[in-house]
């Protein structure tokens, strides 16, 4: 019985796609999101774009901003639209710089919109995502080298 449980557990663990593989497939996910968007399936398009936007994909950040601004797939929210446009502009979506400024002018509470943008930058901005990647790489390197044994408090 113990062998069967171990075997089933191993199959489940190895059958699940790893986060690295999932992250590598972002272009396929973006193409699928674009298909949903073009077909008018804004709910599914938004879900996929949002997932990619949190990974730092500027096209998806731009699209999330547009969808919030137009109420496509989510309730219209100019504060969220502005915040995501700030992220997209940071990632190099040059068309978002003008959109970002235009959205800020349309927002009724500019301070709240800027605060939301700062919060998103701290969580999904270029520097935040780079820090997360560096931390994961450091942990992986320390684990492989034997530097992380016992408590992982000192492994980051």
For this structure, the CATH topology of the domain at 26-123 is: Serine Threonine Protein Phosphatase 5, Tetratricopeptide repeat
Which regions contain 5 or more consecutive residues with pLDDT less than 50?
A: 4-22
Structural class: mainly alpha
Computed CA radius of gyration, to the nearest angstrom = 20 Å
* Corresponding CATH architecture of the domain at 26-123: Alpha Horseshoe
The CATH H-level homologous superfamily of the domain at 26-123? Tetratricopeptide repeat domain
- Average predicted local confidence, pLDDT: 80
CATH class (first level) name of the domain at 26-123: Mainly Alpha
Principal-axes geometry comes out as globular
Q: How many β-strand stretches?
A: 0
- What is the first-to-last residue Cα distance? 38 Å
Helix content: over 70%
Strand content range: under 5%
